[in-house]
Amino acid sequence: STSLGSWLASLPLWFYYLLLVILVLVLFGPRLGHGLMLYDMGELSFFVSALIADKVPGIDFVVGGYGPARYLLLSWLVPLFDGQLLVQESFFLLVRLAAALALMALSRRLLPAPWSVLPVLCFLIAPGPLHKGLFVLGSVVLALAVLRFVERPEGDRAGQLGWVVALVGAGRLDLGALGLLLVLGLSANRRRRSKLLLLLLPSLLLVGLFMSWLAGQEPAAVGAVFEQALDDALINQSVDHPRFPSFLELWTAGRLE
């Protein structure tokens, strides 16, 4: 057992990441195309189809409180391949793969070997619905970027954290808001206050680009999208929902996709 442990410890780090890639694809790849979840995935399919048909968000269809990146990216990807549902599921499979790799990197920073594999194993056993992967990926990547910035609050890492907050927010508005709160909290330190512009600039740039694109589609869409997203976040999300699913329900959801 000692020789086996020594041999495993001698293997290069890239081998374990490659093994994780293979494991994720083997576990979840065969489940693609097993039907459509008629709530979030159905809404996603509707929004993507509307964008492909050149419909204007906020004017021709009502938007929700999720970030726009997933819809815009998929509306570009879907016409390149056959089968909209398979393209969408493949996209979220890649998101799940990225989340597993990022979680492994985060676990290695916070936990000693061999305990660092436990969070990854738990995620693989009960990953939850496929289309929720952006929440997991965004949360883990945000945590990694914050740790790097706290360790060394220099200009390059401030810029990296700023872009992570911006891109995570483009995929999930709630995580973007959390990231901005973290940025403001970290900037309260006098040493880090000078980095505030680097931390906020990427988010301001992405918001400006998105608003400019919306205004180019239809000027009235800017206010409509803002109002509809705010309504979804403050009213629709405050409606009572069933309790958070248990570990067994999360595991079953993954198997039924």
Please describe what this structure looks like.
The protein is mainly alpha-helical and 257 residues long. The chain is 70% helix and 0% strand. The chain is built from twelve helices and no strands. Helix 3 packs across helix 4 (69-77), helix 5 runs antiparallel to helix 6 (118-125) and helix 7 packs antiparallel against helix 8. The longest helix has 27 residues, at 84-110.
Task: Considering the chains and any ligands shown, give keywords for the structure.
mainly alpha, 0% strand, 70% helix, 257 residues, flat
Quick summary of this structure?
Helix content is 70%, strand content 0%.
Topology overview:
Blueprint: H1 2-10, H2 13-28, H3 40-52, H4 69-77, H5 84-110, H6 118-125, H7 133-151, H8 155-171, H9 173-186, H10 196-217, H11 220-234, H12 247-256
Radius of gyration: 20 Å
Total helical elements: 12
String of helices and strands: HHHHHHHHHHHH
Strand content: under 5%
Tell how many strands the DSSP assignment holds. 0
Helical percent range?
A: 55-70%
Biggest beta sheet attributes = none
Mean pLDDT across all residues, rounded? Answer: 84
Overall 3D shape: flat
The computed structural class is mainly alpha
Q: Distance N terminus to C terminus? A: 39 Å
* Uncertain stretches: none
